Amino acid sequence: METKPENSPHESLPAVIVDAALQVHRELGPGLLEQVYESVLARELECRGLTVRRQVSIPIRYRDLHFPEGFRADMIVQDEVLLELKSVEQLSRVHSKQVLTYLKLTGLRLGFLLNFGAPLMKDGIERIALGYVPRVARVA
């Protein structure tokens, strides 16, 4: 897999993440398990000079209760962007809602839902920010 040198200061973090996801999908294609894409994408991002944490345990607070492991974020890049990876034929509304909830719980502002099961990766990328209404949730 070809990698680019460390991202230059003019490149935005979201652009580097999307480019890395496109590269991984281009080389591996659709149809593998999410774990495979997670491992390879993490390595690709690290080769581009980014810090990647995988399967990050996120605690949940509910009233007076504290659950040390409410869920696991697939990836958090540069402690700024949450990545939720899927390898499914088609995304559903629940996937976007899941990312929005994860953003609220982590305090992060930006996330990407990346579906490596899409025939074309450009169709499998959903950028999600707090306050954003996901494309699959909009009424036509």
Question: What does this 3D model show about the protein?
Answer:
With 140 residues, the protein is an alpha+beta fold. Strands 1-2-3-4-5 form a five-stranded mixed sheet, with helices on both faces. It contains three helices and five strands. 31% of the residues lie in helices and 29% in strands. The longest helix is centred in the first third of the chain and has 16 residues. It starts with 12 loop residues before the first helix and ends in an 11-residue tail after the last strand. It has one domain: Trna Endonuclease, Chain: A, domain 1, CATH 3.40.1350. Helix 1 packs across helix 2.
The total tally of domains equals: 1
Distance between the termini: 40 Å
Percentage of residues assigned to helices: 25-40%
Uncertain runs with pLDDT below 50, 5 residues or more? none
Overall geometric form:
globular
Structural class: alpha+beta
Could you give a short account of the major beta sheet? 5 strands, mixed
Mean pLDDT: 88
User: Strand-residue fraction?
Assistant: 25-35%
- CATH class label: Alpha Beta
For this structure, the CATH topology is Trna Endonuclease, Chain: A, domain 1
Q: Which descriptors would you attach to this protein?
A:
single chain; 140 residues; alpha+beta; Trna Endonuclease, Chain: A, domain 1; five-stranded mixed β-sheet; 3 helices; 5 strands
